[in-house]
Give the backbone structure.
Amino acid sequence: METEHERPAMGGAHRFVGLAENLERYAGTPTGAEPPNVHGSNRGYGLVFFFLEELHLTTVISSGLRFQPLGAEPAQELACTVYKEQAEAARHLVDLTSELLVQQRTFLVPDQIVPNEKPLLPGTEFHGVLASGHPIFPSEFTRFTDPEGNEQLQVFTLLPVTLGELNYILDHGVTALRQQWARFEVDVFDLGRPSIA
């Protein structure tokens, strides 16, 4: 019997043939990478940076969570898309959330909020992230399938949410927050945006 901390890693790199090309198709040109051992020891995942020139968007995507014993089926990676000038903040959010998943040997589910007591980014009101499908990329970005059509990987996009928005979700649900974002035409890629709640 497996305990929560004895989950097997999701092996089989062959399941992800074509993943890099798929991510590039939607997120843009790869512009850089941060290896798993960037801080010395192997943290279990790297980070890859993509740039979509026509929309001036940078997407930071984890690379390696899919091989960690998180218990997710299908496997998972995390992404955060922001304007190019805010790429370091996206790197921080993906790194922080990935580290949390690896340390706790857990995974995300759609529309899960990951709250934090303090702001995640200095000088902002963002106290958490919402695990979501990508706001503008098609579902093929979020759900990677093998040639037979079997889903092998989910790429959850981390949408930063303010403390007020976290409380709004608790009171009204994620769908209601998305409706408010649409109503007020919130640009979720702008980390300088105001809170709607």
Q: What stands out?
A: Residues 4-122+130-160 form one domain.
